Amino acid sequence: MIYLDHAATTQVAPEVFAAMKPFLQDQYGNPSSWYRLAHASAAAIDEARQRLAEYVGASPREIYFTGCGSESDNWAIKATAWTLRDKGRHIITSQIEHHAVLHSCQALEQDGFEVTYLAPDSTGLIAPEQVAEAIRDDTILVSIMHGNNEVGTVHPIEEIGAICREQGALFHSDMVQTLGKLPLNLADTPVDMAAFSAHKVHGSKGVGAMYLRRGVKIRKLLDGGGQESDRRAGTENVAGIAGFGKAIELLQEHGDTESLRLTVLRDKLLEGIPERIPHVIVTGHRTRRLPHIASFCIRYIEGEGILLSLDDADICASSGSACTSGSLEASHVLLALGYDHATAHGSLRLSLGRDNTEEEIDHVLEVLPGIIARLREISPLWADAQRHRGI
Ligand SMILES: *Cc1c(COP(=O)(O)O)cnc(C)c1O
Q1: Which domain holds residue 326?
Q2: What's the gap in Å between 70 CA and the centre of ligand 1?
Q3: Relative to the CA of 199, which ligand 1 atom is closest?
Q4: Distance between CA 83 and CA 23 in Å, rounded?
């Protein structure tokens, strides 16, 4: 099997599994307890917090472990809104955010907040000037993701953050896809809050983290015991957090060389697929792009068909389209980039990770043209295009 869906999730690394295991077995002490059995649990959390902080250029006191990346996004956005609602009720985000951000903003609209959804250009880029134009005296929060999970476009968060600072609005950025792929130094980046997730970097599902800059006061997420500096109550997912720490340690050791390796494989796909298959559009930005995401629209075909055929060929990939109650819904990201529904339906995302080899990429380049040709043969869109456009 060839797994090319690392932007959706990744396999827990063997080293990470080994780091998690003791906390699921013998080391089961509650980190808040006082006896020696509990010390190892508390120490594992401290160490993971230290590692993540060091890796992203933050202080350990600015890192809060959460249940997932979505939770971190929800916390940052909703807590900021409710904390600052007397100062203003306007929020700025983009049309191409992850649903954890988009739906949090939509929920706030229901509660009387006003949200501006900035439209990206055709490469998926939000320009700092757009933020500057949209920002107002009553803007309390700007949320723009760092790297887009569908088309890989990387936003200029330094410039966007600088505008927010100047205007006195808090700046949140979803960095789930950039963690481990691009160098981060949050101390020197004008960002107040950021979201991370362990399972996108070979950690386990069900652990995330939120960066909250020191001095930024927003509501706590969960009331209860005093865990996570009294901001997110609940006995910690010790095994998951310990694994997250190990995943970060692996990134500290190999992350940079791995990103370069993935960039080479990505470019092979970005160049090789349009070379071998007619009527393919590369989506996203050519240069401001995450190292592990290659994304396309394969015209005159439906993404669902491509995925089923790839699955038959033992290749796991993803399409921006989500099958909602039987009807295919085109990706909100591709529609925001300006593609029509038919084109957006032919989307294909291949996302790379540490186990992918060059041979696997060569294999995909070899089998994909045949798969697409067969699908087009039975596609009414293709027949129609040939009839009417003479292609
Ligand atoms: C996966 C992902 C999330 C959600 O993370 P979970 O831990 O699965 O909740 C949020 N934002 C982006 C950009 C993602 O890719």
Answers
A1: 2-6+255-381
A2: 6
A3: 7
A4: 36
102, part of any domain:
yes
Domains in the chain, number: 2
Q: How far is the CA of 176 from the centre of ligand 1 (A)?
A: 6
CA distance 128 to 140: 17
- The DSSP bridge pattern shows strands 293-298 and 280-282 to be antiparallel
| Least confident interval from 17-26, 124-133, 179-188, 314-323 | 314-323
pLDDT in tens, 319-335: 865 554 455 688 999 99
Instruction: From 146, 200, 207, give the residue whose CB has the most ligand 1 atoms within 8 Å, as the site to mutate.
Output: 200
pLDDT at 390: 75
Query: What is the Cα–Cα distance from 346 to 300, expressed in whole angstroms?
Result: 7
- Looking at the domain assignment, is residue 177 inside a domain? yes
Q: Which residue has the tokens 């006195």?
A: 168
What's the confidence (pLDDT) of residue 258?
Answer: 97
Pocket of ligand 1 (CB under 6 A): 7, 68-70, 98, 100, 145, 149, 174, 176-177, 197, 199-200, 208
Mean pLDDT across the chain: 95
Q: How far is the CA of 195 from the centre of ligand 1 (A)?
A: 8
Q: Which residue shows structure tokens 């295009």?
A: 385
Q: Do residues 86 and 169 share a domain? A: yes
Q: Whose CA is nearest to atom 14 of ligand 1?
A: 176
Please tell me the pTM assigned to this model: 0.96
Q: Are residues 231 and 326 in the same domain?
A: no
Q: Residues 155-172: pLDDT tens digits? A: 999 999 999 999 999 999
**Residues for the chain: how many in total?**
391
Which whole number is the average pLDDT over 192-214?
A: 98
- Per-residue pLDDT tens digits for 13-66: 999 999 999 999 999 999 999 999 999 999 999 999 999 999 999 999 999 999
> Which ligand 1 atom is nearest residue 145's CA?
13
206, 327: one domain: no
Residue closest by Cα to atom 15 of ligand 1: 149
Q: Which amino acid is at 147?
A: G
| Backbone φ and ψ of 23, nearest 5° | -80, -5
DSSP of 321-333: -EEETTEEE--HH
- 246 lies in the same domain as 270: no
175 CA → ligand 1 middle, Å = 9
For the annotated catalytic residues, the residue numbers are: 323
Residue closest via CA to ligand 1's atom 5 equals 69
